[in-house]
Design brief:
The structure is a single chain. Helix 5 runs parallel beside helix 6 (143-155). The longest helix is centred in the first third of the chain and has 17 residues, at 110-126. Helix 3 links the parallel strand 3 and strand 4. The strands form 2 sheets. The chain has an 8-stranded parallel beta barrel with strand order 1-2-3-4-5-6-7-8, surrounded by 7 helices. It has a two-stranded parallel ribbon with strand order 9-10. The protein has 15 helices and 10 strands. With 380 residues, the protein is of the alpha/beta class. 45% of the residues lie in helices and 13% in strands. Bound molecules: 3-hydroxy-3-carboxy-adipic acid (HCA) and copper (II) ion.
């Protein structure tokens, strides 16, 4: 799984999110933030989608970003002719190969698909531009059809082939098997695109890399068609566990929060409470037993180190599950002096009130301060 690359599609797949509307300025701001974070590629909406989409694509190509700029088109010469004039570094071509899409969407057979793929690929290559060929709905396509078309496009020299779980139906085992099989018939890199309808988008991305894929499509917060695709932040959480040195050295992980806030604001959603890394409680420990262990050594109950992401862990001590170690750490923060026995005594008071009603930090602090004050007041 080392050496993987990221294709961020916030400005393509993400534009297909129900709430998304990015004006030129916002697209540029997002592209710069992604570039600064360190994504390898930034994928943009097709220049034939609309007049402004084409202008925005040209404007982003002119920014001189480190990331390579891609646009995404149908497997059609009309689209390809426009795409190669935008200034992009690469073109991602896609066509539906499943019987559903062949029957109900474009209505073309596999021979036609192969013929137009070869024409488009050779044309884009002749302009010195990178080219990726992907099937759409790969997991509901006929395997023999798929392998044949990938073999054909690999032979004429595409930079990458892509598989797309367009409907989010695939599970990790199926992904692993398809990638292994595909790897045995093509020599180019393999890119993957996973929708999250059944909650497998991060797991599928990870198993794809294990199987030998090299590139993963992501978007900020996973925004995309329906409930979206593999999220950038969530994939980073998965990958820092698998390849810590590579991930830490390649990506500016402490920027994830800013990028997510930028995109969340732009599309008017909140960061989900249970988001990996940036969910408000992602590094909050609550139960007394957990708090005690975390205070002794954070690795006991943490697989991710919040500091890698410019975040802090928090010990939630104002509740009835709390324990005296968590309260002791609060007492220290308040700069008060209590013996362990005294802390145990005050912890009992806190838990007692916590059984009656929800507590906040102020409640706990008042109990601790009152207890401390009583101790230092001489008895009359
Ligand atoms: C779509 C197409 C796509 C393409 C993926 C890709 C999909 O919006 O329907 O080109 O890698 O999910 O199949 O996003
Ligand atoms: Cu998609």
């Amino acid at each position: 799984v080392k050496n993987f690359q990221l294709i961020d599609s916030t400005l393509r797949e993400g534009e297909q999110f129900a709430n998304a509307f990015f004006d030129t300025e916002k697209k540029i701001e997002i592209a710069r933030a992604l570039d600064d974070f360190g994504v390898d590629y930034i994928e943009l909406t097709s220049p034939v989608a609309s007049e402004q989409s084409r202008k925005d694509c040209e404007a982003i190509c002119k920014l001189g970003l480190k990331a390579k700029i891609l646009t995404h088109i149908r497997c059609h010469m009309d689209d390809a002719r426009v795409a190669v004039e935008t200034g992009v570094d690469g073109v991602d071509v896609v066509i539906g190969t499943s019987k559903f899409l062949r029957q109900y969407s474009h209505g073309k057979d596999m021979n036609y698909i192969a013929k137009s793929a070869v024409e488009v690929i050779e044309f884009v290559k002749s302009k010195g531009i990178e080219i990726r060929f992907s099937s759409e709905d790969s997991f509901r396509s006929d395997l023999v059809d798929l392998l044949n078309i990938y073999k054909t496009v690999d032979k004429i020299g595409v930079n990458r082939v892509g598989i797309a779980d367009t409907v989010g139906c695939a599970n990790p085992r199926q992904v692993y098997e398809l990638i292994r099989t595909l790897k045995s018939v093509v020599s180019c890199d393999i890119e993957c695109h996973f929708h999250n309808d059944t909650g497998c988008a991060i797991a599928n991305a990870y198993t794809a890399l294990e199987g030998g894929a090299r590139l993963i499509d992501v978007s900020v917060l996973g925004i995309g068609e329906r409930n979206g695709i593999t999220p950038l932040g969530g994939l980073m959480a998965r990958m820092i566990v698998a390849a810590p040195d590579y991930v830490r050295s390649k990506y500016k992980l402490h920027k994830i929060r800013d990028i997510e806030n930028l995109v969340a604001d732009a599309v008017e959603v909140n960061i989900p409470f249970n988001n990996p890394i940036t969910g408000f409680c992602a590094f909050t420990h609550k139960a007394g037993i957990h708090a005690k262990a975390i205070l002794a050594n954070p690795s006991t109950y943490e697989i991710l180190d919040p500091h890698d992401f410019g975040m802090k862990r928090y010990i939630h001590f104002a509740n009835r599950l709390t324990g005296w170690n968590a309260i002791k750490s609060r007492v220290d923060q308040l700069n008060l002096n209590l013996t362990d026995d005294q802390i145990k005594e005050v912890t009992a008071k806190i838990k007692k009130l916590g059984d009656v009603r929800p507590l906040n930090i102020d409640d706990v602090d008042s109990i601790i301060k009152d207890f401390h004050a009583e101790l230092s007041t001489p008895l009359l």
